[in-house]
Amino acid sequence: FPSLRLLYLLDEINEPLITLKTIGHQWYWSYEYSDFMNIEFDSYMIPTNDLNLNNFRLLDVDNRIILPMNSQIRILVTAADVIHSWTIPALGVKIDGTPGRLNQTNFFMNRPGLFYGQCSEICGANHSFMPIVIESIPTNFFIKWY
After folding, report:
1. Residues 141, 37: Cα–Cα separation, whole Å
2. What is the enclosing helix (H) or strand (E) of 137?
3. What is the share, in percent, of the chain residues with pLDDT greater than 70?
4. N or C terminus: which one in the chain shows less Cβ crowding within 10 Å?
5. Where is the Cytochrome oxidase subunit II copper A binding domain (predicted)?
């Protein structure tokens, strides 16, 4: 019984600062900042021909997720077509997006920087071309960005 209680408490999210809704599509991600009005965008992988010298091939996206550091972040994940898996290894986050279902988890970033991930579900031929990039910035820069 103690382990079941602990699992339940780990999944409980107490007053997150920001909620980010993520929707997996074939072969891109859509994001909605639920706490703010009219902040929605799609995030596609940058084609190899369009990369700059400082971009990573098959990992960089045209629209990064911008989140404040030192804040509790709740992420809601779903999918529009097939099962996807939103994974950021450096943050220890892996959550499946299933059509018709809304899954949630949380994370906390304690340093600024870029965090890279990909779809880790075999959701079709191009699932490895669904990169995820989170840019963690100080809160005052996040407020200016918003």
Report:
1. 19
2. strand 131-137
3. 97
4. N
5. 15-146
Domain count, the chain: 1
* CATH number for position 2: 2.60.40.420
Which range marks the domain in which residue 12 is found?
A: 1-145
Predicted confidence (pLDDT) per residue in 71-120, tens digit: 999 999 999 999 999 999 999 999 999 999 999 998 999 999 999 999 98
Could you please report the per-residue DSSP string of 53-78?
TTSPTTT-BSS-EEEESSSEEEEEEE
91: which DSSP letter?
G
Output the CA–CA distances (angstroms, integers) from residue 86 to 25, 75, 121, in the order listed.
Answer: 11, 10, 8
β-pair partners for 22 = 31, 77
Q: Which two tokens stand for residue 3?
A: 């382990």
In this structure, the strands spanning 28-33 and 103-108 are: unpaired
User: What's the pTM?
Assistant: 0.88
The pLDDT score that the predictor gives to residue 124 is: 79
C-alpha Rg value of the chain to the nearest Å: 15
